[in-house]
Amino acid sequence: MIGLEKVNGLAPTAIQEWLAGALRGREPLPKATPDEPPHLAILRLRHELTSRADTALADGARALLGQFCDHPTSQPDDYAQELVALCSNLRDPETPRRLGDLALRLSDFPRISDDLRFAVLGALVDTPPPRDVAFWRQILGQNPHKDAGMALSGILAVDWRAGVSLLPDLPETESAGRAAAIKLDKTWAYLSAEHRASLVDAVRSILPRCPRVISQPVGDWAGTKPAAAPGNGQSVSLLAEWSPTFIRVVGSRAASARFRCARLGAPREAEGVLVPA
Description:
The chain is an all-alpha fold and about 280 residues long. It has 15 helices and no strands.
């Protein structure tokens, strides 16, 4: 194993090898807490790297992400999720492009785990530049029952009106309806008073087109909102999934690190909105 103090002296190819091992938990990293995910420790320690080593680390992460996107089921889930989280935080413009291409091919990989699927889609919700509504509509069409939550998060993050229009197309499940209500509430909290009223009006108008399992919880939510309400300007997260797999990892290292938040341009937060399965 290579200590961090030696990383600055490594050649670029060796730094990539070190990075792959570190993301797998095979290299020593001074963590803030024993259960801190490797990618967070790596991000925090970047300021200790020389400019050359930091550039090599970013290049190595890009290369590793390319390998993963080409063969998404060839690596262990823990490593792949750590890699996606690291690359998303590095803000490399290549990351959303590669992950976006992979997201549109997820149906080609039926063996990909739900956790990894959520990591890829969540990174796209969370990483600028935002994807457009047409992209998230394509994601919804691939696997509505698995991807509807992320599709709604992605659309609400760029255009809440388009997000409201998605409600009739959500899966007809109670958990989907509950999740939609929570996502709308988080969106409402971030809007100005004028737009809050418009959001509630739009939701109430579209409810007759929604199946009952969607219209009931969403209508209950809308019923708690006045036509206009003062804004508080708080930042929010929108990530609210109804997958049993996602729920099972709540409180675990994976949940705390990888399923962060889908924001409407809000500051970075370690907040997630979780819905019972």
